[in-house]
Amino acid sequence: MTKNYPQSVRIVEVSPRDGLQNIKTEIPTETKLELINKLCDAGISDLEVASFVSPKWVPQMADAADILRQLKPHPTTNYTVLTPNLKGFERALECGVKEVAVFTAASEAFTQKNINCTIDESLQRIEAIMQPALDNNIRVRGYVSCVLGCPYDGHIDASEVARVTKALIELGCYEVSLGDTIGIGTPLKAQAMAKTVLETVPADKLALHFHDTRGQALANLFACLELGIATIDASVAGLGGCPYAKGASGNVSTEDVVYMLHGMGIKTGIDLDKLALAGHYITQQLGCQNNSRIGAVLCTE
Ligand code: HMG
Ligand code: MG
Prior knowledge:
Elements: E1 10-13, H1 15-19, H2 29-41, E2 46-51, H3 64-70, E3 78-82, H4 86-94, E4 99-105, H5 108-115, H6 119-135, E5 139-145, H7 158-171, E6 175-180, H8 187-198, E7 206-210, H9 217-225, E8 231-234, H10 254-263, H11 272-286, H12 293-300
Parallel strand pairs: 1-2, 1-8, 2-3, 3-4, 4-5, 5-6, 6-7, 7-8
Helix pairs in contact: 2-11, 6-7, 7-8, 8-9, 10-11, 11-12
Bound molecules: 3-hydroxy-3-methylglutaryl-coenzyme A and magnesium ion.
The site of 3-hydroxy-3-methylglutaryl-coenzyme A has 26 residues, from helix 4, helix 5 and strand 5.
């Protein structure tokens, strides 16, 4: 089979949301804003800055509106926020967002734990967001979690991933990001799952969102890149994890992804040195380990 690597890849940076949502200590809003500014400065074009979920469920995201209010529009960075339902969407709308991300999963048990409803109910909640989004000219991105396995249900059929992905596209999502929420996949399984999804949804409407719990995320991305999928979600310093996915650790680190892509001659528009500084900044602030190999190397050179 001919390998169809993209010439450029769009990175969706999720660290201010996915990277920070699971951190138990309070992070000042100013620190989050400084991280966001550093990521913009590094050339990140798409940045998920917060989530409008229930603050009782995810206290770390309680300052989402403050972040949005204080954030200056950036000429080259598109900000997006995660919203689980109409209430979250309306809170985001009040803050003047131009894009939201909605989320569901290919696992019933995970959907219950994460958002307290069934997959079909989550799709109905998303449907309720679509008309107001259209009326307000707001783009909607979708996520499907547990595409390579679930912490509660175990095996997940790729056909179910394809069904939910197609449903999100039909509801009006411009793109769907495929989440290996617990970083359980391996390259050939990731590729097989992506091939099944590609039978119903084209590559230019798909993104890859792989957590790195078992150190497989880069290999899994590499395996899917040759299928022509050219959007990758990542988190600087490899921060991240979902509070409702037992054992889920960080996302793949943006620094490592960018290093790999640039090494393959694939453009990202990102300045790797500045990106590493952003990763260094947030790990220093949090007093945590930098999970990016490349970030750690660049910051000690
Ligand atoms: P619920 O308790 O079933 O909701 O939670 P409810 O409709 O019964 O409402 C209960 C209370 O929450 C009410 O307030 C609502 O007003 C309030 P009360 O009357 O008790 O004062 N409420 C809200 N408040 C603020 N913002 C909202 C909102 N909605 C209701 N949007 C809900 C349902 C979805 C809200 C809850 O389950 C929730 O917030 N879950 C958060 C899940 C989450 O953030 N998970 C992490 C992100 S997903 C992820 O990380 C995966 C991803 O990265 C991809 C991957 O890796 O696979 C995207
Ligand atoms: Mg995630």
